[in-house]
Amino acid sequence: QVQLVESGGGLVQPGESLRLSCTASGSIFSIDVMGWYRQAPGNQRELVAATPTGGSTAYVDSVKGRFTISRDNAKNTVYLQMNSLKPEDTAVYYCKVDCHISAIRRDDYWGQGTQVTVSS
After folding, report:
1. Does residue 117 contact residue 12 with C-beta atoms inside 8 Å?
2. Nearest to 36 by CA among 25, 45, 27, 28
3. Which of 13, 25, 50, 81 could form a disulfide with 68 if both were Cys (CB 3.0 to 4.6 A apart)?
4. CA distance 110 to 9
5. pLDDT surpassing 90 at residue 10
């Protein structure tokens, strides 16, 4: 079993910042991709940012220049630094990890979600 625990969401005003954290634990052989998704009411789930192991980070256009994804591989933790937040960033943010639980088995796991609300 692999578990993801998220933290860092909250209520902020436009222009303020938040940092989300997600730590993976359990039977992890290796991590392939760590990323963040978000979903607002009435909207489809959207990939916000991803960081493949050994690869380049990627961002949805709407957050480029404002959000930064990073990893602490020793802690199996991924972060999302969110600056200059806008009301349209309001959503539930989910951490996702694609990992191998053995040399030949790979699966994806999701965090519980954390609410980010940006409002004046």
Report:
1. yes
2. 45
3. 81
4. 16
5. yes
> Among 63, 60, 74, which Cα is nearest to 23's?
74
Tokens of 39: 């979903």
| SS3 category, 50 | strand
Q: What is the rounded average pLDDT of the residues 31-58?
A: 97
Q: Strand locations in the chain, DSSP E?
A: 2-7, 10-12, 18-26, 30-39, 46-52, 58-59, 67-72, 77-82, 91-100, 106-110, 114-118
Three-state DSSP state, 90? coil
CA atoms within 13 A on the CB side of 83: 6
Tell me whether residue 58 is exposed, middle or buried, using C-beta atoms within 10 angstroms of its C-beta: 0 to 12, 13 to 18, 19 or more.
Answer: middle
Long-range CB pairs of 7-11 (<8 Å, 24+ gap) are: 7/114, 8/80, 8/114, 9/93, 9/114, 9/115, 9/116, 10/115, 10/116, 10/117, 11/117, 11/118, 11/119
